[in-house]
Structures are given as structure tokens and as C-alpha cells.
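Entry 14. Structure prediction run on the chain below.
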Amino acid sequence: MTDIYTREREHRMISGQTPTQGLIARLERRDRISPAERTALGHALDPPVLHRAAELILRAGARPSDCRLLVSGLAARIKGFQNGARSITQLSIAGDFLDLHSLVMKQVDHGVLALTDCITAAVPHRLMTDLIESQPHLGRLFMLELAIDGAIQREWFHRLGRQDALGRMAHLLCELDTRIAMAELGDEDGFSLAMTQEDFADCLGLSSVHVNRTLAELRRPNLATWHAGRVEIHDRAGLVALAAFDPAYLRPHVAPI
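Output returned:
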């Protein structure tokens, strides 16, 4: 097996960061990660793979033999119909496992699409099983990741049925702001978000025209702007209030498990 330091260098050459950087940063917001756990996680990763924007990283119905970690870029879990219509059911940022559930589900029921150029690194299922058995604390943290995935899905579903378009847009931006901050990828004023209006529409159950109007509504009270692939947050407290956003479902605070 390639040694961990060689793998780290390979990842830096492609993405400019270590492969586990976003994941470790987020996990450490919840619990301490030991040097042994860091090393074991690094050893389990295969070399990085580049996926171009609009490439399907994972196809619905596939039976993957590994769990794929998103090292950099933005990806989306998608569900589609035969007529070409689709929904984005979750957004994945650097540090997210794209298909951790495939370890036990075996066959996936959705696709994963690269919205931007993405770098991924895979952990073969057999090595993930070994990792969880040898590092049970990491295993519990991975269980928490799956639980948070479910919580995000419930939050989106609840708001799709009970919140207006402006509130849903504000909530999506608040969620991404929190998740990106936990992975130490944003800054005080905002974060990169290379999405199209069509992507927003597929996340929020709106038309592209409605997305355009909703983004304009956020600009008028100077809460937030989205331009040239970046979200600028001008009034975070106001945006949170508009969204009725409570980050508890994202488990943003330290609570050892």
C-alpha cells in the first residue's frame, strides 16, 4: 500500500489540499480526532480522481465497491424522471462522503453529479470495514455523518412543503454557510458557490425564473447576494431570521460520542 505521506502529496498536487482536510475539520467541530485516527483514515484512501463539471460521479442503481470522499468541489445528489426532470436532494461540499451509506445499502437509489470540477478519493468497502473495526470511535462519527444526512433530507422536505420560496432560499444559504464554515472553507463575509439558477431551482422546487426573482428579493434588504460563483452575506442575523434557521440538525458543536 502507498504510504500516507506519498498519498498526501498526490492529493496536494491535484487539489491544493490534503484529502481529509475538510472532513477532519468538520469532525473536530464535534469531537477530538486522534493522530492514530488521522493516520488510519489517510492510509485507507485511494489516490485522487478528477471529475469534470457535469460528470456523473455515481449512477443511480449502481453497486459501488467503495465509499467516495469529496476532496474539493461541489457535487449534488440527484433523482430523475424519464422525461429528464430532476431534483437535487442534497448538496455535497469538500469533506463530505458522497455515498457512505453504500457500505450497507449496497445498491444506491440516486445519482451523484459534479456541479463543478471535483476531486474525490475512494475508500474501498473492505478497507472501510477494517477502519471502522480498528477505530470504533471513527465508526461512531461516520454513523453520525449518516444521521446528519438524514436530518438534512428531513429539513429540506419539511421546508419544501411549508415555507415560501424566499424562506427556502435563505435557509439553503444559511445551511451551506454553516456547513462550509465547519469545514473551514469559507470566510467571514461569505463563500464560493458555483451553482446555476437551474441548480438552485432543482434544490428548491422552483422554476429558474422564480429563482431569479427570489435572489433579487434577498438583495433588496441587503441580506445576501449571489454573483459570479460567490455568496456574499451582508446581514447574517437577518438572513437567519428570515430562514427561521436553527443549525442544531447539523450538529455544529462539540459533543463527544
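The first helix runs from residue 4 to 15.
Filed with the rest of this week's runs.
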